[in-house]
């Protein structure tokens, strides 16, 4: 996963970052712009990540912070759900429908 970089635009005298094709003005003061940039990146902003990227990040966290007996049984579920949604589906666009369809396709009931 690539984290977007901030850059300075001479024409406007301001700092920017490009997220999901949108340029976000972070402001003219470099220190304030960098703090805003860090908050945006560190917030886990769903506009930045796809569902699959979030699943991957959580899986890596589980492997690092939990016992194998805890994370191993979940591997198939993570993989199955990740493969059930479009590759580039942003987390902000995930709807209950995606989860319901995945559950239904598996033949499970709630």
Task: Explain the overall architecture.
This protein has 110 residues and is of the alpha+beta class. The chain folds into two domains: 6-42, no CATH class; 51-106, no CATH class. Helix content is 48%, strand content 15%. The chain contains five helices and three strands; from the N terminus they run βββααααα. It has helices spanning 30-42, 51-65, 68-71, 75-84, 96-106; strands at residues 6-9, 14-19, 22-27. The protein has a three-stranded antiparallel sheet with strand order 1-2-3. β2 (14-19) and β3 (22-27) form a beta hairpin. α2 runs antiparallel to α4 (75-84). The radius of gyration is 18 Å and the shape is elongated. The two termini are 33 Å apart.
